[in-house]
Amino acid sequence: MPSPPRPPSPHEQRRQFARVPVRMSAEVHIGDTTFTATTRDLSQGGCGLEAAQPLPEGVELTLGLFLVVDEVEEAAVPPLWVKGRVAWSGELDSGGTIAGIRFEVITEAQKAWIGQVLGHLTPRPA
Fold first, then answer.
1. Which helix or strand (DSSP H or E) is residue 66 part of?
2. Which of 24, 26, 77, 97 stands the most exposed, by the fewest C-beta atoms within 10 Å?
């Protein structure tokens, strides 16, 4: 007998856009500090990030997202640069940080970039 579906988390219940699981390279700028991270998921409203550095709740950041194919940044797809805010943050068992980023200001062109990338990465039904 199949197990019942998992109820959505409080974060998922509040989301306006469905997140799609996707691993992308990310460059994070907080003030004068810059470091790399990896996305866990992405939507037009935000993304989940994993980083070695702390991502304090409420902090504003600039995020660069890079499409990576076969461990190499895809040169044909320019990165997406977007301003966001850390909506929630927690510690990973590995000692890093996991955080939910809410995009603060996103243009139609940025939404189109996300739609194109997610369309490219999401398998289409046969």
1. strand 60-66
2. 77
